[in-house]
Amino acid sequence: MNTSPRKLNLDEWDDRYEQLRRDGLREAGYGGPLRRHVVREKDFRLQQLQFDNSPAALRLWNFLLTENERLHQARANGHKIVGTMKDLGTVPVMAYALPGVRAFYPDGAWWTPCLMECSDKLLQQAEAMGIDASFCPVRAMLPAFENGEHFPQPDLLVCSTGAVCDDFSAIAQRLEHLGHPIFWWEIPRRRQPAPGEMACALPGNLAAPKIQVDCVRTELQRIGKALGHLAGKTLEDDCLAAGIRAANQARRLLDSLRRTVYFAPAAPLPALEMLVAEMLAIHFCSDREETIVVLDGLLAEVQLRVRRNQFIVSAEAVRIFWVNPVADLRAMNLLEELGGRICGSDYMFTHALDLIPENLPPLEALARTALADPMVGPTSDRAMRIVRECQAGHAEAVVVSRIPGASHCAREGEIIREIVRQTIGIPAIELEIPPVCDALLPSLGSRLQALVETARDRRTK
Amino acid sequence: MQMDVFLTSPWIPAEWIRAHGLQPRGIWSAETFQHGPWPLSAGVCAFAEAAVRFAEARTNSAVIFSTACDQLRRGFDTAILRGQSRAFLFNLPATWQTAAATQMFRSELERLGQFLLAIGGRAPSPEVLRQDLLQSSRTRKRLLESASASSPRGFAEAVARFHWDGAFSPLQPAAPTNHIPLALVGGPFLAPHWKLLDEIEAAGGRVALNATETVECSLSPTFEFEAGANHPFDVLVHGYWDNIIGVFQRPNTRLYSWLKPRLASRHVRGIVLWHFTGCDLWRAEAQTFRETFGLPVLLLEASGEPGAAPREINRLQAFVETLR
Q: Cβ contact (<8 Å) for B281 and A188?
């Protein structure tokens, strides 16, 4: 049955789900109605969200919201679980190259207070553990480790350090003090090669001195040994090369999805689903093969919609480039309610979207990819990529979304906005979005509205 | 006249700057580093912001930022954007247990050397470096030996002087008191904050251990030549690298190993955790200090005024009172 794309609230999805079932919907093992996540997992925030009405989006949401359940199941099936923190995209490629190993980001617990509308009390518990509200919501992972009510205890915990956020580094150190041993690895702050210095090209049109690439490669080698020890199998180059090819398969799909959605005359998929889809890149939501299936489904859906000229946000909407992930998913709905649409994004892991070079020795390729992390280099590098992508996506405005308490947010917004204004002259604002933003909706709304109006006004001049 | 090279961290070797014929200065010792209220915007570390503004104003000097914290690292980005061309970002590894980290520290020193040459420094002579290391080692040792017996303020001033021009200032022994021994642990301790040490005494406490980043623990690098066989640059590298005690290190167990015997030997009964607004690295340690050392911890926020703000003094007084 042909149904036009539109957004549904949770009640409407109940009916839609029944209809899809009657029409013969075939689901993955983790499938089911969205409502059950509210009932069973207390993901109350779903009741405040608007979702895309496609079966592909349903699969995406079910995939996302069953991650902890699937991880527990994997543990029960004898899989080894690796908790990988902060690097957002590199170590999981290595972990998934080994049979029987799954990697996930405990950092992902930062969305739990949002999804559960703080009913989980994780943030309060983090405060009782010495990490108060002046730190990023990622502090939710501390009590999540302690109470074991969310993700399973990892068999190995790996965390990048060096050029990372202070708040995250401090929280991870607190975690280790609480008795969770951490395998720390160094990611140096990326710099431009000096004149005459041996340099390496990195994904994302970046470069780094060879000495930094060598350092990261050596660090990844250590991680590879630890992973191999955990898996009981050496992580050989051919194995890792196959892992890179599989990761690239997901990245290619995501690239096609982003191009199709962001460059279309109007948005064929909502911003919220795109944010979730992009997040799959960093650790495949704990199932690499299924990530590929989910992304494939989404891509097929948006391609069909574009062919049919069916969109979910009108062509009149102001094209916004969004920087940083939002602590409250509701913010992505809000943007569209106020007349905006996403035409490009940098959710802090653009290095997990770029293809990993397949023509280099695998660890070298991963080292280069890790160093291309937008968060480990100069903010100006990140800003220049944003500028390029704004131009490619014909952005009319930029939103830099601040994460409460995150050390990188203290300065990067000012630098990004300044470079965006100087180079392409489009308006840019900063917004701070807490894990549950209901109380701030009026002020967030008026700021976004002002941005949308300013951008619209510029069309007529 | 030698150009001033301001260092934002005591773990960037001043001896290496001097060997290039330039004058290293601990930025925290500069009288003009910060006057008046901190120029804060949301989430910005006051110390990092002051460093950025200082770099902006001192275009005839060089400023060496470090990556020890995200705030300074990104502060460097801001300084560059605002046109400071004599700024350098020293990549200080957070890990310390691997050969890769040691190698990175060494290569950063070499890179810093290139920068110093580019701003007018001279190529370092091994003998000049060797002599400077020996002198620095002696001064550090003398200062450390007098740490527990000197007046807290006199010691803080003497260490600041050392970080300003490398000189040793003789210290007067402190008069015996029955004040409650405290440890002051935390971020950089600036000249305007010396008054805090008097305020602590007035409240009935005494800083028996000043373990702020720029005071006692900053003296830990030591340089030992084995029968003249070592190359001074290797001695410099290991003298620092093997002795850094930083909250930013991962794991930061060295900090705890350094603190533990000193807290015990100086009979410390409470810890004042000194931190700048927006400093996550220090603030996050408060609970671990309590758990590890079994001592009460008072968080005290640095302000732009001399000493501590009135509200903070009130808290300090109450803290000391509870320890009586």
A: no
The CA distance from A256 to A329, in Å, is 23
Fold (topology level) of B4-125: Rossmann fold (3.40.50)
Judge if ipTM > 0.90: yes
Give the pLDDT confidence of B107-124 residue by residue, as tens digits: 999 999 999 999 999 999
Residues of B in contact with A378 (CB under 8 A): 77, 80
CA distance A346 to A353: 10
Cα separation, A143 vs B21, in Å, equals 52
Mean pLDDT for chain B overall? 93
Write out the two tokens for B274.
């000194």
Q: Is the Cα torsion angle B188, B194, B195, B199 positive or negative in sign?
A: positive
Long-range contacts of B146-153 (CB under 8 A, 24+ apart): B146/B171, B146/B173, B147/B209, B147/B210, B147/B216, B148/B208, B148/B209, B148/B265, B148/B266, B149/B173, B149/B174, B150/B174, B151/B175, B152/B184, B152/B197, B152/B200, B152/B201, B152/B206, B152/B207, B152/B208, B152/B210, B153/B194, B153/B197, B153/B198
Joined together, the tokens standing for residue A204 give: 């994302």
A423 touches B at CB < 8 Å: no
Helix (H) or strand (E) holding B114: helix B99-118
* Enclosing H/E stretch for A94: helix A91-95
Query: How are strands ordered across the β-sheet holding B23-26?
Result: B23-26, B4-7, B62-66, B87-90
Q: Which residues of B1-32 are buried (b: 16+ CB within 10 A; e: fewer)?
A: eebbbbbbbbbbbbbbbbbbbbbbbbbbbbee
Chain A residues whose CB is inside 8 A of the B98 CB are: 186, 218-219, 222
- Measured at the alpha carbon of residue B223, what is the angle toward residues B218 and B224, in degrees to the nearest 5? 150
Q: Give the contacts of A104 (CB within 8 A, at least 6 positions apart).
A: A67, A71, A81, A82, A83, A84, A92, A151, A154, A283, A286
Instruction: Give the start-end residues of each E strand in B116-216.
Output: 180-186, 205-212
CB contact under 8 A, A412 and B114: no
Query: Which ranges constitute the DSSP H helices of A184-263?
Result: 210-231, 237-263
Which A residues in the span 154-173 are in contact with B, Cβ-Cβ below 8 Å? Answer: 159, 161-167, 169-173
CA A423 vs. chain centroid, Å, equals: 27
User: Which tokens go with B56?
Assistant: 């902006």
Residue B36 has pLDDT above 70, yes or no: no
Task: Give the one of B43, B78, B284 whose C-beta lies nearest to A170's C-beta.
Answer: B284
State whether residue A102 is helix, strand or coil: strand
Domains B4-125 and B127-323 share a fold: yes
pLDDT in tens, A357-413: 999 999 999 999 999 999 999 999 999 999 999 999 999 999 999 999 888 888 899
Percent of chain A topping pLDDT 70 = 99
Backbone angles phi, psi at A355, to 5 degrees: -65, 140
Domain locations in chain B? 4-125, 127-323
pLDDT tens readout for residues A133-168: 999 999 999 999 999 999 999 999 999 999 999 999
Which residues does B36 contact at the CB level (< 8 Å), separation at least 6? Answer: B304, B305
d(CA A326, CA A331): 7
Cα separation, A371 vs A348, in Å, equals 13
Are A336 and A290 in contact by the 8 Å Cβ rule? The answer is no
Q: Tell whether domain B127-323 is in CATH 3.40.50.11900.
A: yes
Q: Taking CB atoms and an 8 Å limit, are B252 and A173 in contact across chains? A: yes
Whether A454 has its CB under 8 Å from any CB of chain B: the answer is no
pLDDT beyond 60 at A283 = yes
User: In terms of DSSP bridges, do strands A318-323 and A340-346 run parallel, antiparallel, or are they unpaired?
Assistant: parallel
First to last CA, chain B: 53
User: Quick check: A270 and A301 in contact, CB under 8 A?
Assistant: no
